């Protein structure tokens, strides 16, 4: 079962994807994580995208489609979770072509609905374990022990360079201009299932479980 988690920055895509990886053994494909890895390992592509990402603009379709193409294979186990991809109509068309080539298809597109005020709070309070990638929040999901990851015990906590109000404003505009048309695109195909992303993390998990069955 291949699914897309679609929603604005801070909607909870990464948080819910990790839960589905843990409970169902699905594979998370986050283009944001792949681009951040390229940026921190200093590859040519990473250097090219660093300033674009920090400013909150979208990276070119060509780059992100190439990243997804590298990771997709017939060996999807319990299925792929596309987190932060596709983000443009061109990416959506490329994804259906790539899946068709592998004899696979898309099961559901989960639209995570959250209003802008909540997104600002989520983004400005987020931190992540730099070792295992667990996602936290200063208020809604703090670590049990100050500065120490509940999942792996690391004290290497990081905040993203684009998690500031200026970049977030640009990220939101990019979302409304270029990504939100995908809501209509997948609705027309009959694949779209909205969830209330404003609910507690565990409530959102339950809504997604109910949709996936
Ligand atoms: P990406 O990494 O995909 O960032 P994003 O879409 O802006 O989304 P976020 O990762 O910020 O939010 P999320 O929805 O995963 O929320 P999270 O679960 O962390 O992309 C970054 C950049 O890379 C882009 O700006 C662009 O430059 C580039 N890029 C990536 N993909 C691209 C593509 N396909 N095309 C072109 N460019 C691309 O949760 C956020 C916070 O809220 C956390 O602190 C969490 O603990 C908390 N939280 C989560 N759920 C809840 C809840 N229900 N209640 C309360 N708090 C919650
Ligand atoms: Mg994310």
TrEMBL record:
Residues bound to AMP: 31, 36, 57-59, 84-87, 91, 160, 171
Binding site for Zn(2+): 129, 132, 149, 152
Residues annotated for ATP binding in this entry: 10-15, 126, 135-136, 199
Location of the region described as NMP in the Swiss-Prot/TrEMBL record: 30-59
Reported function: Catalyzes the reversible transfer of the terminal phosphate group between ATP and AMP. Plays an important role in cellular energy homeostasis and in adenine nucleotide metabolism.
CDD domains linked: ADK
Keywords, alphabetical: ATP-binding, Cytoplasm, Kinase, Metal-binding, Nucleotide biosynthesis, Nucleotide-binding, Transferase, Zinc
Matches recorded under SUPFAM superfamilies: P-loop containing nucleoside triphosphate hydrolases
Protein name per the record: Adenylate kinase
Pathway note: Purine metabolism; AMP biosynthesis via salvage pathway; AMP from ADP: step 1/1
Assembly mode: Monomer.
Family: Belongs to the adenylate kinase family.
InterPro entries found in the cross-reference section: Adenyl_kin_sub (IPR006259), Adenylat/UMP-CMP_kin (IPR000850), Adenylat_kinase_CS (IPR033690), Adenylate_kinase_lid-dom (IPR007862), P-loop_NTPase (IPR027417)
Chain ranges of the Adenylate kinase active site lid domain: 126-162
Catalytic activity of the protein: AMP + ATP = 2 ADP
GO molecular function: AMP kinase activity
Enzyme Commission designation: 2.7.4.3
Domain of life: Bacteria
Organism name: Parasedimentitalea maritima
Compartments reported by the entry: Cytoplasm
One Pfam family recorded for the sequence: ADK
Domain notes: Consists of three domains, a large central CORE domain and two small peripheral domains, NMPbind and LID, which undergo movements during catalysis. The LID domain closes over the site of phosphoryl transfer upon ATP binding. Assembling and dissambling the active center during each catalytic cycle provides an effective means to prevent ATP hydrolysis. Some bacteria have evolved a zinc-coordinating structure that stabilizes the LID domain.
